[in-house]
Amino acid sequence: MEYSRLPPVPVYSLAERRNSGIMNRMQAAFYTRQGPAREVLQVGEQPLPVPGRGEVRVKLYTCGVNPSDWKVRRGGFGRGLMAPLVIPHSDGAGIIEATGEAVARRRGERVWIWNGQWKRPFGTAAQYIVVPSAQAVNLPDPIDYAAGACLGIPALTAIQAVTLATIQPGDWVLISGGAGAVAHYAIQLAKMRGARVITTVSSDAKGAHAGNAGADVIVNYTCADVVESVKAATQGAGVARIIEVDLARNAKLYPGILRPHSTVVIYGTSSSESSIPSLWLMQNSVTLRPFLIYEIPASDRAAAIAALNELLASNRLIHTIAHRLPLHAVAQAHEMLESGGVIGNVVLEIPTASDP
């Protein structure tokens, strides 16, 4: 299905929907307990959500699946079930087809979603989602709905990370895990700022993917020494910035790869606690900047969204869709990401009311 060429979606006022009773149910993926994907994920009917004041209802065509989705579904880091029934996923794209008070002018807009399922039980793995108007961002015309489902977590995380890193032209930057969805965007963004980018990968295929994003030096850490590779690339000086996907695993490398007064921006870790070379970091005035994309300051969020949509409008970013699966294959999508072998983003295609 080519979502960028879909006909306009009919839009209805809330009064029209109440009077007609149409479409008061929707298809959604959901779970009522945590555990392995195929044991807990279901697809079936759920009530159609109704927007309140300042809210919009988006008819979703696509839904992005991220590592945080399967980690929450499994109860990783001690996270329990947040509600009796959870519709997962935070990213998606579609058209606003109903609105609450104060935002009626937005009906018919193409949008992408951020924080769709953050601190709320009903996310984007459904035909419809209701969110505050600000969480449905205009999707520029050059961008299709599949790419729109990759923005809320991967692209915004990359923009925030690169912004916090304060990269200057000519800086050597290490972006770990260069084949990941966030890192792939971060490499592109760092290159736009004039950086020289080193990245780490675990296979030749992932290295080629990182190279397509613009990485200058690609280190396969399964067969090459990361510290020695960074020293060789930087003529022994080390890197000025790191954009880090796994603090717990990689912090031990910092004394060998960072120069004094450098910055490490951390958006991920594989453990709830990390051992870091504290004294060395202090002695070299290294700044650690951890952040969680769901909870960045409102001013940072607004700046990141504005910067991202400017890039989207000019079609300057490469979006890599590794797999497009139907909504009913949601368990398979989770398993793909959980295996760690996916190169690119996994997107679910949401059936419309007219689909079988």
Question: How would you characterize this protein structure?
Answer:
It is built from 13 helices and 15 strands. By secondary structure, it is α/β, with parallel strands linked by helices. It has two domains: 3-150 and 319-349, Alpha-Beta Complex (Quinone Oxidoreductase, Chain A, domain 1); 156-294, Alpha-Beta Complex (Quinone Oxidoreductase, Chain A, domain 1), CATH 3.90.180. The strands form three sheets. Strands 3, 4, 5, 6, 7, 14 and 15 form a seven-stranded mixed sheet that branches. The longest helix is centred in the C-terminal third of the chain and has 16 residues, at 298-313.
Topology (elements, then pairings):
Layout (H helix, E strand, L loop, with lengths): L13 H7 L4 E6 L6 H4 L1 E6 L7 E11 L1 H8 L16 E9 L10 E4 L14 E5 L3 E3 L6 H4 L2 H14 L7 E4 L5 H12 L3 E6 L2 H10 L3 E4 L5 H8 L5 E6 L2 H4 L3 H4 E9 L11 H6 L3 E4 L7 H16 L7 E6 L3 H10 L5 E5 L7
Helix pairs in contact: 3-13, 5-6, 5-12
Question: Which features would summarize this protein structure in a list?
Answer:
356 residues, alpha/beta, 13 helices, 15 strands, globular, disordered N terminus
Q: What's the CATH topology label of the largest domain?
A: Quinone Oxidoreductase, Chain A, domain 1
CATH superfamily of the largest domain, please? Answer: Medium-chain alcohol dehydrogenases, catalytic domain
Query: What is the CATH top level name of the largest domain?
Result: Alpha Beta
Q: Please identify the structural class as seen in this structure.
A: alpha/beta
Estimated radius of gyration: 21 Å
What sequence of helices (H) and strands (E) makes up the elements? HEHEEHEEEEHHEHEHEHEHHEHEHEHE
> Judging from the principal axes of the Cα atoms, what is the shape?
globular
Largest sheet: 7 strands, mixed
- What is the count of structural domains? 2
CATH architecture tag of the largest domain: Alpha-Beta Complex
Find the count of extended strands (DSSP E, 2+ residues): 15
Q: Determine the strand fraction and express it as a percent band.
A: 15-25%
Q: In percent, how helical is the residue content? A: 25-40%
DSSP helix count? 13
Mean pLDDT score: 92
